[in-house]
Specification:
The chain is mainly α. It contains 15 helices and no strands. It has a single domain, classed as Amino acid/polyamine transporter I, CATH 1.20.1740.
């Protein structure tokens, strides 16, 4: 069949859009603070290095998706290539990671609500963080599946907010704010960037969109999507750090709001509150499904576990946003990255490359990836 020259490839664009929508989340708001602490240049180098390493993990996982028949997610692939025990381990890793991610959404959502409503109502930040959790719990009571179906559009709205903040900030950028270097904090952006770039779960969805005939294009599309995300992240960190400099706040937005005045604060915090609470609710629904279908827990208990454990974590004193997502990214992201590398090697050497010749990634690269991720896990745990 001849290609329609001059017409956009809708399937490819939709697949790239799905990747961008599935990877950009609350982690992006932690990047400017991490970059400000290390120096924007060091953060940018870390972004490029980790971006390349995570790209390798993504294309390994994409290759696993291409070469494995049937519909699977991470735990299903782990079960096929590493056995049921490791599959249970992979599924168990999701639970604390998801609780931590929900806590991160609670922290940022509370920050947006506090910026929006505290000038009128007063109140401490903690109150607004709890309100965020309560609203998400109310929305998801009974398992509202329709909310999950609009997840893509919610992420598009987040992307809009993200680009809006870049465009507003860039004209006010001061280069002296991005020229300083703090080598003592060189490792701080590692986990934050890892968390912000995490998104393996979207690759099976990309596979479904492409269809069987175009699966060989998946690694190329992963590369294109990753490049676009890295550009957006670099620009966002540059814009915010360039404006707020040493005063960059952990969740980025409140620092900008103090710079650009009330109109910016109201518009951005209103949109941000709606987006964050919506995504928080989607994550809660996905987690409830894990409890219900993987662990056979009834719906009400699943809802309670998804809704109230993040609140308990908040009361236990876990309320430092950047430190939280840094730990989640470095430790949980690192473990999942190692699992993907091991699965890829099992597939490559196990005679599973039947759809076409397997993508060849040298064994040395695989060992280096596992060593770097293991080092990141150890460094993060020691310094936590």
């Amino acid at each position: 069949m001849k290609k329609n020259c001059g017409h956009p490839d809708i399937v490819r664009l939709r697949t790239i859009g799905t990747m961008i929508g599935g990877m950009i989340g609350v982690g992006v708001f932690g990047l400017p603070y991490a970059f400000a602490q290390s120096g924007w240049a060091l953060g940018f180098v870390m972004l490029l290095v980790l971006g390349f390493l995570i790209f390798l993990i993504n294309i390994m996982y994409a290759e696993i998706n291409v070469q494995t028949s049937g519909q699977h997610r991470l735990s299903g692939y782990v079960k096929k290539y590493l056995g049921p025990n490791w599959s249970h381990f992979a599924a168990a890793m999701f639970v604390p990671y998801a609780w931590g991610a929900m806590l991160a959404y609670m922290l940022v959502g509370g920050d947006f609500l506090h910026t929006l409503l505290s000038p009128l109502l007063g109140g401490e930040l903690l109150v607004y963080q709890l309100v965020t959790a309560i609203l998400a719990a109310m929305i998801t009571f009974g398992g509202i599946k329709k909310l999950a179906k609009i997840e893509f559009w919610i992420i598009c709205a987040l992307l809009f907010l993200f680009v809006f903040m870049i465009l507003v900030s860039l004209p006010s950028l001061e280069w002296r704010n991005v020229s300083s270097l703090h080598f003592e904090n060189w490792f701080l952006p590692y986990g934050v960037i890892f968390f912000a770039l995490s998104g393996l779960g979207v690759i099976p969805e990309m596979k479904d969109i492409l269809g069987e005939r175009r699966l060989k294009e998946l690694p190329q599309i992963v590369f294109a999507g990753q490049i676009l995300i890295l550009i957006l992240y670099a620009l966002f960190a540059l814009a915010v750090v360039g404006v707020t400099g040493p005063a960059t706040t952990p969740a980025a937005f409140d620092g900008l709001a103090s710079m650009f005045g009330q109109t910016f604060a109201i518009a951005g915090s209103l949109l941000g509150s709606i987006i964050i609470i919506s995504i928080f609710s989607v994550v809660s629904i996905e987690m409830q499904d894990v409890f219900r279908f993987d662990y056979k827990i009834n719906q009400k208990i699943s809802w309670a576990l998804a809704s109230f454990v993040p609140v308990l974590l908040l009361f236990l004193g876990i309320h430092q946003f950047v430190e939280l997502i840094g730990f989640l990214g470095a430790v949980f992201g690192g473990v999942i990255g190692i699992l993907v590398v091991v699965m890829y090697r099992k597939m490559f050497y196990g005679g599973h490359c039947k759809t076409r010749e397997c993508l060849k990634i040298p064994a040395l690269v695989s060992w280096l990836l596992m060593a770097i991720f293991a080092g990141g896990i150890i460094q993060t745990i020691i310094g936590f």
